[in-house]
Amino acid sequence: MDDLTFLLTTGVGVAAAVALYVYLAGFGKSVQFANAQEAKTILQKAHKSAALTDIILSSDNRVALAHFQDGSAQLLHTMGHKWSTQALNTNSVKRVKTTSKGGLHLNFRDYAAPSVNISLETESARKTWLKALTPHMHATQVHAIQDA
After folding, report:
1. How many CB atoms lie within 10 A of CB 16?
2. pLDDT in the model for residue 89
3. Can you list the domains of the chain with their CATH numbers?
4. How far is the C-alpha of 118 from the C-alpha of 102, rounded, in Å?
5. SS3 55
6. Nearest-5° angle of CA 81, CA 71, CA 122?
């Protein structure tokens, strides 16, 4: 019985210690930018070859889509407590789904790229994002969205 008690208390103690470490280190918190200027700064550092022409932000300031003068596009999104940028080109977006809360969920053709949830509060914001993502989607996906 003492062995069982030892194993249970040790298991619970280790789990509590790991949870406390994750909480204190901030790994459980997702970062977000304070405003559009912070997102522009991060994106411009990631793409130095051309100037930024426009930027679209999600409602929760965790995702941004930027277009540059050279015609390229970058998606800035969170990966836990860090930022990640992803270059978008023709056909890079495999699937776009509307979430139950009205946002968008993106899947990419590159299987190494994570899927991205975009929080959107209004229908006009959703339409703006879909219009901005259209050049980066496969033709069948564009038709599916237009038919819906």
Report:
1. 10
2. 85
3. 36-147 (2.30.29)
4. 9
5. strand
6. 55
